[in-house]
Design brief:
single chain; alpha/beta; 8-stranded mixed beta sheet; 37% helix; binds iron/sulfur cluster
Length: 326
């Protein structure tokens, strides 16, 4: 991967992860800065232009390492938190809420992984029940692993955690980090899926459905239990094609090695939707959502009936206790 500029906060210039990351990249300039917000948070920048040539920012996260997930966001555990060691991602999904949330498309990596881990351990110790942690909320967990080595470290950490579960959510087929270790029961690689015609229309730069399914299948063969995430499932009025989509997936994969399946509609806070609608005037999904926003609705046409239809298709193959609707 080639990056023109790497910005590094002075305070982590000598951190071992900073050195490791810099070694993994071809770059032209290193620029030291006092705080990442000087580059990442300024308002006079264009997400769309930066997306073409993103810079890398290496910084230290000072506090607030983990957050409670929104109500209903779970895969069967009572205690649920998410964390973001990285913000932004190399893909360019037209429906991605990050383009509404951030001013910058630069990749921001918080290199102090050890502090994320301490917070996770502290959180786990607050209760005797299992606690689930979601990675990949504000990034893609696997896509830039070759640079960050984050999971390489975190898989080692989670191996010793008895009451902690880690979900790694991704659209990437960059699965070497998972292939190189013994499968862990408390780590769930989870892949976001949509029909190929949706991927072509809305998930720019992401791997095809067939590649994602092949990656899942090879992990299953190695012993990993996989999460399938139809969330957001982008809905078009082609019921037969969605029926085929689900049956092809479950016929191809090992249904005994599926940890959980989630299903959710495209949804986004109004303010994000408004910002993206300005930035991407030809984005059908966002413009449709935006006109509904003006009517006070913020989701796509994936209504209760269509959700039930999809749930029924999934439950032909997967027991209902493993299916979660967001
Ligand atoms: S893969 Fe996820 S984080 Fe990356 S652009 Fe798509 S929706 Fe956004």
């Amino acid at each position: 991967m080639k990056i023109k500029n790497i910005y590094i906060e002075k305070q982590i210039e000598k951190h071992k992860n900073t050195k490791r990351i810099v070694k993994n990249i071809k770059f032209e300039n290193i620029i030291l800065c006092d705080h990442y917000s000087q580059i990442f948070n300024t308002s006079n920048q264009s997400f769309r232009i930066q997306k073409k040539f993103p810079s890398l920012i290496l910084a230290k996260k000072e506090n607030n390492f983990i957050f409670k997930t929104p109500n209903g966001f779970n895969i069967g555990f009572k205690n649920n938190y998410y964390f973001s060691h990285m913000l932004n991602c190399p893909y360019d999904c037209k429906y991605c809420y990050l383009q509404g949330m951030f001013n910058s498309a630069n990749y921001l990596v918080f290199v102090n992984y050890e502090d994320f881990y301490s917070s996770i351990k502290d959180k786990i110790n607050e209760t005797n029940e299992t606690t689930c942690f979601f990675s990949g909320y504000d990034c893609d967990s696997l896509a830039l692993e070759n640079i960050t080595n984050f999971l390489n470290d975190f898989l080692k950490y989670f191996k010793d955690l008895k009451k902690g579960v880690l979900e790694i959510r991704s659209k990437s087929v960059n699965i070497n980090v998972l292939k190189n270790v013994q499968p862990l029961n408390n780590v769930i690689p989870a892949f976001s899926l949509n029909p190929q015609f949706v991927i072509e229309k809305f998930e720019d730069k992401t791997p095809d459905l067939s590649k994602r399914l092949n990656a899942i299948k090879s992990l299953q063969k190695l012993g990993w239990n996989i999460g399938l995430r139809f969330d957001p499932l982008i809905w078009f009025n082609k019921q037969d094609q969605y029926k085929l989509f689900f049956s092809n997936i479950f016929d191809y994969l090992d249904t005994n090695k599926i940890h959980s399946v989630t299903l959710g509609a495209f949804r986004m806070p109004s303010s994000f939707l408004k910002k993206i609608a300005n930035d991407r005037p030809y984005n059908y999904l966002i413009q449709m959502g935006n006109s509904k926003r003006l009517l006070g609705i913020e989701t796509s046409d994936f209504d209760e009936n269509k959700r039930m239809f999809c749930k029924q298709q999934i439950m032909k193959f997967i027991p209902k206790e493993k299916v979660f609707i967001n």
